[in-house]
Amino acid sequence: MIPKTIHEPTVWRGSDFSRPREWKIEFDDQMRDEIVAAARSVRHRNFEQLTEYNFLLPACSPILDQVRDELETGRGFTVVAGFPVDQLSPKEVRLAYAGVCSVLGRPIIQNGAAERMVDVRDIGREYSDRSRGYSGTALLPFHTDGTKGEPEVLHYTGLLCLETAAEGGLSAIASAPSLFNEIMCRRPHLMPSLMLGYQHHRQGDHPKDHSPISAKPIPVFSFSNGLLHCRYNRNNMEWATKEGAEITEVDIEAFNLIDEIITEPGFALSMDLRKGDLQIVNNFTVLHSRTEYVDAPDRKRHLLRLWLHNPDARRDGHRLVELFAPPNSRFSDTPWRTA
After folding, report:
1. Are 44 and 94 in contact (CB under 8 A)?
2. What range defines the domain where residue 56 resides?
């Protein structure tokens, strides 16, 4: 049974928050010292080897428990400030980031190179049906991130800010359940199409002997265990038509309505991520975007991204399919292409 209205903490609007301290928390000095010490104690390891059992953070436990609860049963997002990026070497930063996030989930593969931690920075690639958006400076409209199928479903997306842009690069997030409610209120006749779903373009991140689009439609909205799951990326869905996927006038009406709602004043929450800020969102309940940006001549905007799988998550993502992971990557870390 599909509800007409969702009532839970994941339903919110940006205008509900009057100041950052309502959604932002911070590591204190003791926590930062603990993270630094833990990272240096595992310098001989790779970040993929870290778990909450070998990267111990007793002082950080209360704040990380708060983050986990917020992702699973709260608003579906949080920002933790004060990550000690300036006290660590580049390798130690990656170890610390993975170690802190190991409490939340396990890093999963994000692309055909089998990378589990991705550098989000400009390397001169235009955002298109041939290149992923994290490699350039262009505007990234509201979307959820790519996902894998069972058993390593993408539950949370983490972004750790190492450097900011000279101009732009603002982050914005929006509630998928609030979006669902608005569509059901304004034009419920569009919901059946959105729940049937659409094929997605893989943006060139697939083996040459595989289809450039997903084999099956991916629902924009679906329900499992009574919980909403959202999977939306308009560009990927429209680019798939170049490879034979079909989109109707009703579908375009639905996409236009989504974009209209999500960009209305007060619907989304904008945030300017600063150095040391760690943003984590539930990928099934929160859509995110980024404005176009310009780098300084001597400094590039740089974030580290993790996709996290939580085997105990309430949302299972059971009907979603692989988009960007290499074949058989559920069982192997073998890349099908080089980074």
Report:
1. no
2. 23-309
Tokens in use for 208? 């040459």
The beta-strand segments (E) located in the chain are 24-26, 77-81, 106-107, 117-120, 140-143, 156-163, 167-168, 171-175, 221-224, 227-230, 269-271, 278-282, 286-290, 293-294, 302-309
Would you say 205 and 324 are in contact if contact means Cβ atoms under 8 Å apart?
yes
In a domain, 13, yes or no: no
Query: 115 with 108: CB under 8 angstroms?
Result: no
335, 215 Cβ separation under 8 angstroms:
no
In a domain, residue 276? The reply is yes
Residue at 10 is within a domain: no
Residues 36 and 161: their CA atoms lie apart, in Å, by 17
| Rg, the chain, Cα only | 19
Contact 189, 254 (CB under 8 A): no
What would the DSSP string read from start to end of 231-275?
A: ---HHHHHHGGGGT----HHHHHHHHHHHHHHTSTTTSEEE---T
| Helix or strand (DSSP H, E) at 134 | none
- Amino acid identity, position 182: E
Question: Would you list the DSSP string of 293-327?
Answer: EE-BTTB--EEEEEEEE-TT-S---TT---SSSPT
In a domain, 328, yes or no: no
Query: What is the CATH classification number for the domain harbouring 211?
Result: 3.60.130.10
CA dihedral 145, 61, 40, 50 (to 10 degrees): -50
Question: Where does the pLDDT of residue 149 fall: very low under 50, low under 70, confident under 90, or very high at 90 and above?
Answer: very low
What is the C-alpha to C-alpha distance for residues 125 and 138, in angstroms, rounded to an integer? 10
Tell me how many domains the chain contains: 1
User: By percentage, how much of the chain surpasses pLDDT 70?
Assistant: 87
Residue 47's contacts (CB-CB under 8 Å, 6 or more residues apart) are 94, 95, 97, 98, 99, 107, 116, 117
For the segment 287-298, the average pLDDT, to the nearest whole number, is: 96
pLDDT score for 331: 35
What is the C-alpha to C-alpha distance for residues 36 and 26, in angstroms, rounded to an integer?
Answer: 15
